Amino acid sequence: MGRRKITDEANSSTDTAEDNEDEEREQLTQRMPSSLVNQVDEVADELGMSRNASVNMLVKKGLQNW
C-alpha cells in the first residue's frame, strides 16, 4: 500500500474521540519498517480512520500499558 498524501491526513476529521481538539499539535517524522507501516495501515482501514489517527491511537494505548 502506498503512502497516503499528507494533505489527506491533515484534512481528515476521523481522529479518535479521545483527542483534544484544543491541544496544540507538533509534527513528528517517524521511520519504521514497511511491515509495521502495513500493520498500521490495516488498523486504519479496519477502523475507518487516517494513518495519523491510527498511529496516535496505537501510541496512546501503548503508553497506557507501559
Write a brief structural summary:
This protein is an all-alpha fold and 66 residues long. The chain is 52% helix and 0% strand.
Describe the structure.
By secondary structure, the protein is mainly α. It has a domain at 32-66. The chain contains 3 helices and no strands. It has helices at 6-11, 34-47, 51-64. The longest helix has 14 residues, at 34-47. The model is unreliable at 13-17 (pLDDT under 50).
* Estimated helix fraction: 40-55%
Over the alpha carbons, how many angstroms does the gyration radius reach? 12 Å
Number of DSSP helical runs: 3
Chain-averaged pLDDT: 80
State which percent range the strand residues make up: under 5%
Report the uncertain regions.
Answer: 13-17
Largest sheet: none
Structural class: mainly alpha
User: What is the string of SSEs from the N terminus onward?
Assistant: HHH
Task: Give the N-to-C terminal Cα separation.
Answer: 30 Å
Number of strands: 0
Apparent shape: globular
